[in-house]
UniProtKB/TrEMBL annotation:
Its main location: mitochondrion. Residues 1-26 are annotated as: Disordered. One of its GO terms (molecular function) is metalloendopeptidase activity. The lineage of its organism: Eukaryota, Fungi, Dikarya, Ascomycota, Saccharomycotina. Keywords: Hydrolase, Membrane, Metal-binding, Metalloprotease, Mitochondrion, Mitochondrion inner membrane, Protease. Its EC number is 3.4.24.-. GO terms for cellular component: mitochondrial inner membrane. This is Mitochondrial inner membrane protease ATP23. InterPro entries: Peptidase_M76_ATP23 (IPR019165). It is a peripheral membrane protein.
Amino acid sequence: MSDEMPIPPPSDVKKPEPPKDPNSAEGFRWWRRTFQYKTGMGLTPEEKHQYENDYQFILQRKQCQKCYEYRDWILKYSPTVRFMAQQISKLNGNNNGEVLPFDESKIICDVCPEWRSGGFHPDLGILICQNRIRDKWHLEDTLAHEMVHYFDNLKWQVDWLNLKHHACSEIRASSLSGECRFSQEFQRRGFGFQVAKGHQDCVKRRATLSVMGNPNCKDEKQARKVVNEVWDSCFNDTRPFDEIYR
């Protein structure tokens, strides 16, 4: 989880009150002060630092609220995410064979210091990086990706420090989540790819980057080698889907 300070409610952040008469001298000072806060011009280093801290608190709180709004909407309306939630629920049933509802509290929004949009922890659940999510559809792909990891962990008891295990789940997550479909790759790379080949190249690239973050991985060369070693079996395994969603 994030090491950031907890976000206070907006009521705890002091903001200048607008004057009753904007044409008065007091009104002029207020508008000038507001302009200074917006631009940073004319502020002392201490005032600028305080303003930046206040701004970050407010921004992070808004990001958090929007992230949870997107999460709840996606859980309700996304076919991919709803299907994955059902499959996870089946694997997460109790000893009596009863299917337990998907625990939405396992999906947490928080600030991430790294350039990533989400993460999965076998004990804690799914993290959505509220400060990295571009829009509702980006959150959908991110959540679907992490739910594939969730599914894999329940079905096969993945050893996440084993590079081959990790690479296999990353290949499946990037391939099945929709994050490597044509429209997403077009936004990232323009016309410089072919649809079928572009999908596989995207999956390999993203899986390699993820494996590079494994503490047992030495470098990019090793990550690429491991991804290639497990590629055929893992890319062709589309469970729990019938086929790859593009």
